[in-house]
Design a protein that fits this description.
There is one protein chain. Helix content is 33%, strand content 13%. The strands form 2 sheets. It has a 5-stranded mixed β-sheet, sandwiched between helices. β6 and β7 form a beta hairpin. The protein has 219 residues and is an alpha+beta fold. α2 packs across α7 and α3 crosses α4. It contains 8 helices and 7 strands.
Length: 219
């Protein structure tokens, strides 16, 4: 397995952001993109992504074999919600590992939840998604979307060895489509892909990120 660069890595925070000003768009208005409502919020923030991200999701859909669909679970995440998620992860880890210092806790928490200051979802550049049939039946992917490393015994890692051959093929199909459309994957979460944010800039070699924290969409 190649090196996993975590979102807590100082190289990610060190990426320069030159905000391009692209708006958030509502994926519910795009017929080409299918959404799942399991993480839907009253304001519909989950269904929003930056304009270029939406375009690339449409492009990724065209790369899939006939009969398969991308199923988006979450896009934009408000900063306050990201902060709550990260604080909750820190608290759980601290209770389970009271011997860990603050830096160790931050690193381990970032395997599943991004530190708020560099979070891809708050930029509108990230999507959590899976594959489904044309009828909406989700394909086996080895774990559920948002499975944590401890509860899945690290099977949520994109290149995890201990998953079925079918799940591996499905992850490879998803990865090929998303990579062809310009996205990068967070390797501890097979479902998490981003474009335009700091993590994307670091992995792709871009000189800067185009997306900083996005303003919440209007209700």
């Amino acid at each position: 397995m190649t090196e996993i660069v975590l979102l807590s890595d100082t190289r990610i925070a060190g990426v320069v952001v030159r905000e391009c000003g692209e708006p958030l768009v509502d994926l519910r208005r795009l017929e080409a993109v299918r959404l799942d409502a399991r993480l839907a919020d009253d304001a519909g923030a989950f269904a929003h992504v930056r304009l270029s991200v939406a375009d690339r999701l449409v492009a990724a859909q065209t790369q899939l074999p006939r009969g398969l669909r991308l199923l988006v679970v979450e896009g934009y995440r408000p900063a306050a919600l990201q902060e709550r998620y990260f604080a909750s992860s820190l608290a759980r880890l601290s209770a389970a590992h009271p011997e860990w210092d603050g830096e160790r806790l931050r690193i381990e928490a970032s395997r599943y939840v991004s530190p708020p200051e560099v979070a891809p979802h708050t930029s509108g550049g990230a999507v959590d998604l899976t594959l489904c049939t044309a009828e909406g039946v989700e394909l086996p992917m080895g774990t559920s979307v948002n499975a944590t490393p401890p509860e899945s015994d690290e099977a949520c890692y994109t290149d995890a060895p201990d998953i079925s051959a079918e799940a591996r093929r499905n992850r490879q199909t998803l990865g090929a489509a998303m990579t062809a459309a310009g996205f990068v994957n967070y390797p501890t979460e097979w479902w998490h892909w981003s474009y335009g944010d700091r993590y994307w800039a670091h992995l792709s070699g871009a000189r800067h990120a185009g997306y900083g924290p996005a303003a919440e969409p209007a209700h």
